[in-house]
């Protein structure tokens, strides 16, 4: 699953909540564009910014209450702007890995929990 998304990230940006999420994904060899939600813009304005540059994005917010809220809001906005939102990786991790945040993903790889 991770290799698949490392490759997908070469074509499509990953949207994450914060700078530490970007660092964590880079640590596990995601080399494509990773975009931080926290840019001082409203979620709607952030979504407009994304819609002006991309047709497809990979959404990877945290798996806690706040992350789920952000995922749902951004997904709704982007879908209304005809942007394809890929949630397959988010759903896989949420349902199988029992972590609360993207920052924990390197530990999952180190322990061979996700591949």
What does this structure look like?
There is one protein chain. This protein has helices at 2-9, 19-27, 43-51, 65-80, 88-96, 105-110, and strands at residues 14-16, 34-36, 56-59, 84-86. The chain has one domain (2-110): 3-Layer(aba) Sandwich (Dna Topoisomerase Vi A Subunit, Chain: A, domain 2), CATH 3.40.1360.10. Helix 3 (43-51) packs across helix 4. The protein is globular, with a radius of gyration of 13 Å. It is built from six helices and four strands; from the N terminus they run H-E-H-E-H-E-H-E-H-H. The protein is an alpha/beta fold and 115 residues long. Helix 2 links the parallel strand 1 and strand 2. Strands 2-1-3-4 form a four-stranded parallel β-sheet. The mean pLDDT is 94.
Average pLDDT taken over every residue: 94
Classify the beta-strand content into a percent band.
5-15%
Number of strands: 4
Low-confidence stretches: none
CATH class: Alpha Beta
Question: What characteristics describe this protein?
Answer:
alpha/beta; 4-stranded parallel sheet; 50% helix; 11% strand; globular
What is this structure, in a nutshell?
The protein is α/β, with parallel strands linked by helices. Helices cover 50% and strands 11% of the residues.
Describe the SSE topology.
Layout: H1 2-9, E1 14-16, H2 19-27, E2 34-36, H3 43-51, E3 56-59, H4 65-80, E4 84-86, H5 88-96, H6 105-110
Parallel strand pairs: 1-2, 1-3, 3-4
């Amino acid at each position: 699953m991770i290799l698949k998304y490392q490759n997908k990230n070469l074509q499509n940006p990953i949207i994450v909540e914060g700078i530490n999420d970007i660092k964590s994904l880079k640590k596990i060899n995601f080399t494509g564009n990773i975009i931080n939600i926290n840019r001082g813009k409203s979620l709607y304005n952030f979504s407009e910014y994304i819609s002006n540059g991309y047709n497809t994005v990979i959404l990877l917010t945290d798996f806690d209450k706040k992350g789920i809220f952000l995922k749902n809001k951004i997904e709704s906005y982007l879908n209304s702007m005809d942007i394809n939102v890929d949630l397959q990786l988010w759903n896989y991790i949420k349902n199988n890995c029992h972590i609360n945040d993207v920052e924990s993903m390197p530990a999952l790889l180190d322990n061979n929990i996700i591949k």
